[in-house]
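WARN no homologs supplied; continuing
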Amino acid sequence: DPDADPPPSPQGLKYEWVCTYLQAGVSVPCRGPDSQPIAWPSTEALTVAAGTLPASAIPYTFTLIVTKGSRAPGTFSVPVTVVNQVIPAVGLAVSAITGGYQMEDGSLYVNQDAKVTFAGFSDTPNTNLAWSVDGGVDATVPAVAPLGYTAPTFVLQLSPGVFQRGARYTVKLTGSLPVSNSGQGFTTGGLLINSPPSGGGFRACVLD
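OK structure emitted
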């Protein structure tokens, strides 16, 4: 029964997570909002849910200890600062494409003069949205984004003078809330511009 007898860790490795923070100059175990020590799972990857640790100006230190048999353990530590912020979860979807198509991985393969319409959304009402494109593309220019860059609907008009053939671009949607403790949530989508056709080769042969 896999549930009663789970398979061993990959390559016989065992994982242990330790969380500590400095209190009066002394390293002590991390505690939850109820002031009780937190027991961390012995897994390769660790996910810390929101609300697990109280906000603190002093960073928490997460240390992963990896052991295998009688070998010396390997360790790695990383500081984590927990802040009291409200961060909206935002997402984007492609609602229309002219001159291209969406690939299986979700990215877009488009012509140099394509037109793409994105729809942005958030899990929190009154989220302020802002769209941007990397690679030196200015999404505040009406010729690039005819409907603007702060609405849920974002129309991206490609043109040869702005987008380069064969190049990759990232469309980013950022969301923030009109409150003092708001953080920024974001999501991205990829654009690949159709490359120009390339010439092949040929050779001559004599037929008998």
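The mean pLDDT is 91.
OK
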